[in-house]
């Protein structure tokens, strides 16, 4: 019986320590009035773009087209968007451009310029169709970002200038010459 009493005491001590350790996190969390959640299984949106989170940030926006190349250097995000030959529509491509601009200038705080190249896959290689160049200092970003969702940069000259869209001869071979119109807002008076 010499072993029974010390063994029982050791088991009760281990049980008491185990119960205390299970209640310890609950006791400390009740004492912290302004506790914040820590992202363990839930991702938090990125606020700053870095080389280490570049891929994660771009994958998170779920574009229609595939990104071929992305580069982050000196506050400039450069992206090559690869489109398939004969497939896809320019409206879907510019919807992806809008998503990239929203991410860059509304969510991320350290992007100063976005360069987007729309590149087409061809049997003999690739061909540059168009390029977009938008800067954080562009005044239209403040008031007109929501209007970009309904814009037609291919045909609307105002949006072509705002986005600094350059179309190549490969674009003209595929879609014809770029011609456009300018929409000037008018004041509507109600009677």
Automatic annotation (TrEMBL):
<protein>
    <submittedName>
        <fullName>Uncharacterized protein</fullName>
    </submittedName>
</protein>
């Amino acid at each position: 019986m010499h072993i029974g009493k010390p063994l029982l005491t050791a088991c009760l001590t281990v049980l008491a320590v185990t119960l205390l350790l299970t209640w310890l996190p609950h006791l400390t969390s009740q004492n912290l009035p302004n506790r914040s959640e820590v992202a363990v299984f839930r991702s938090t949106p990125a606020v700053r773009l870095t080389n280490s989170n570049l891929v994660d940030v771009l994958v998170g926006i779920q574009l229609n087209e595939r990104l071929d190349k992305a580069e982050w250097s000196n506050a400039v995000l450069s992206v090559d968007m690869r489109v398939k030959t004969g497939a896809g529509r320019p409206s879907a491509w510019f919807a992806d451009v809008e998503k990239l601009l929203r991410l860059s200038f509304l969510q991320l705080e350290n992007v100063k310029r976005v360069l987007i190249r729309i590149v087409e896959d061809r049997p003999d290689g690739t061909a540059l169709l168009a390029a977009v160049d938008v800067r954080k200092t562009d005044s239209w970003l403040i008031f007109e970002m929501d209007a970009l969702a309904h814009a037609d940069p291919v045909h609307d000259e105002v949006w072509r200038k705002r986005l600094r869209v350059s179309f190549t001869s490969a674009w003209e071979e595929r879609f014809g010459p770029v011609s456009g119109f300018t929409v000037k807002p008018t004041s509507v008076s109600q009677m």
